[in-house]
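Much of the work behind modern protein science is quiet bookkeeping, done one molecule at a time. The fold becomes a row of whole numbers, each drawn from a learned catalogue of backbone shapes. The protein below has been through that process, and both of its lines are reproduced in full.
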Amino acid sequence: MLDQTGVKVERLHGENRYMTSIEVAKKLNSNSEKAFVVGGNGEVDAMSISAKAAELKAPIVVVEKDKLNEEAKALLENKEIYIIGGESCVSEVVKLELDKLDLNKSSERVAGLDRKETNAKVISKFYESEDVLELFVAKDGYVGGKDKLVDALAAAPLAATKLSPILLTTDGLNGLQQGSVEELNNVEKVTQVGNGISENTIQLIRNLLEK
């Protein structure tokens, strides 16, 4: 249908999610020194890092838990590689392979015990608190399944333009998330993306930012 309007349409795809991420990364043709790796079942981890990756124009490469294909190796070689998520999504076997490819010969894993802890660690690791003026909040997919992460996906390009992180939550924040929010002492605006986040949680975020 778009073809009929005269708009040029290009489909980026592979035979699976791993190869599709490779095709997107190739199209990005990024000069960024950094690259992010997530597991094929780590959709929420990808959402945690999506805004920072967009800001840096850095690729997000989706890999199998226990195997790294040759195309991924070629894309990641001599990059500063960050694995987002735990061993249940990207194994230590794959990390050892990534260590060999890494610019400094040691990839770094950013992960917590669950999606909320990983989200908090991403915010603390990749954002300087004094530079963050806006905080985006989107559903974490705990309730309703992975399809509820689509709001975070949609928000990532906008958050990137604001140099802002995406806080993933639905009902409440864990201790690490509360700490990461309290560190953001210059936030002037909170933007909730989509419905489904409890009002109590939004009020908690306001209270933490006002401290």
